Amino acid sequence: MIERYSLPEMSNVWQEEFKFKMMLEIEILVCEALAKNKRIPYDAFQRIKKNARFNLDRIKKIEKDTHHDVVAFINNLAENLGKDAQYLHLGLTSSDLLDTAFGIQLKESSVILFKDLENLRRILAQKAKEYKEMVCIGRTHGVHAEPITFGLKLALWYDETNRNIQRLNFAKEQVCVGKISGAVGTYANISPQIEIYVCKKLGLKPSLTSNQIISRDVYANYLNTLAVIGSSLEKFALEIRHLQRTEVREAEEPFRKNQKGSSAMPHKRNPIICERICGLARLLRSYAVAGMEDIALWHERDISHSSVERVVFPDACILLDYMLNKFIEVIGGLIVYPDKMLENLVKTKGLIFSQRVLLELMQKGLSRQQAYDLVQRCAMKSWQENLDFKEVLTKDKDIGVYISPLEIEKLFELDYYLKNIDKIFERLGI
């Protein structure tokens, strides 16, 4: 039944119009199930299905008196049903409608987010393969470490995106539930079979237990999952921001024709999209905290969670949809500078090969500490005097006792660092 209401844009899923359509669908399905169980006349159900409708403006007007949106909704339906209104909302409580409609909204939102994540995964795989053998410097603590490839950076993001898809799938399974269990979840006035029937028609699972509401831990987990995905996007965007710094300039986000970077400085090309993604990730994490605050409620339910959810869930889903699409745009148009990568690779004059020298000395019989001290002494000389590391090693008498100049030369070959790149990509299935 829900398919005809499926909407392509995330913002539409969170419009009041869509929520009330879902609530109407639920009411009709409950009547259908009651009619099939001979709890209400079948012809009454058919008239309800034909005549039940709502008007947003009218609901708002009624709500000014009732101060209760669901009551206003039911009263508006009743205005169009005449005597058949007596069969509406039998044995239900407001949250039977609200939480079940909420499950549909989250299901629809998840479909859109899955599509976004699939698109991101696809373009990351494509770019990772494209740059698989493009050598660049790996950095730890912001300092040059050892050679890596730019494709391997992107392959790491691909792998993380895979995990995010798995996380979202688990979170979706938990929140795509409904409840038609009455005022405190005892089914005192409505049969569990009605809940099973309605949820099946809507493509939801019945919540195994509920009180007046579905327990809010499942929704908190969903928000936490969105926050984790947002944090991954922040991680990816932050790396591009670092690579776009003037001193590095190995990659940068797209800069469009006629785009301006600064009102004062015409030369500026700023990573504004990546910075925006990093900022929005902070907002997503704040929503996750709000979701966890909603878990603890009084007894079988209070209303303190409701006002929070009306803000954080639409915002979080819309934000993540936006962030994913903006980052797909960034990766799709990413500008890469391989010459600059090679320039940066040799900036330390060979110091990045220090571990190979260390391991070679250990192969020659030195203890790790002895070998480390020898290599570090030469490395510090290279740092402080701006000398070529290979030359310092070749001229060092203590090093020369163990490694010949020809052996030192072989220790500075880049291919050594790339020998397992293909295996990593094979493991990832790229």
Please explain how this structure is put together:
- The chain is mainly alpha-helical and 430 residues long.
- It folds into three domains: 2-90, Orthogonal Bundle (Fumarase C, Chain B, domain 1); 108-174 and 214-344, Fumarase C, Chain A, domain 2 (Up-down Bundle), CATH 1.20.200.10; 351-411, Ribonucleotide Reductase Protein R1, domain 1, CATH 1.10.40.
- 64% of the residues lie in helices and 5% in strands.
- The strands form three sheets. It has a two-stranded antiparallel ribbon with strand order 1-2.
- Helix 4 (56-66) packs across helix 5 (69-79) and helix 9 (217-243) packs parallel to helix 11.
- The radius of gyration is 31 Å and the shape is elongated.
The tally of structural domains comes to 3
User: What count of helical segments does DSSP give?
Assistant: 19
**CATH homology-level superfamily of the largest domain:** Fumarase/aspartase (Central domain)
User: Count of DSSP E strands?
Assistant: 6
Query: How would you sum up the global shape?
Result: elongated
Helix proportion: 55-70%
Which ranges are low-confidence, i.e. pLDDT below 50, for 5 or more consecutive residues? 1-7
* Order of neighbouring strands in the sheet with most strands: 1-2
Q: Architecture of the largest domain, according to CATH? A: Up-down Bundle
At CATH level 3, the topology of the largest domain is: Fumarase C, Chain A, domain 2
Secondary structural class: mainly alpha
- Average pLDDT, rounded to a whole number, is 96
Which sheet architecture does the biggest sheet show?
A: 2 strands, antiparallel
First-residue to last-residue Cα separation:
38 Å
Strand content: under 5%
Rg over C-alpha atoms, rounded to the nearest angstrom: 31 Å
The level-1 CATH class of the largest domain? Mainly Alpha
Helices and strands, in order, run as HHHHHHEEHEHEHEHHEHHHHHHHH
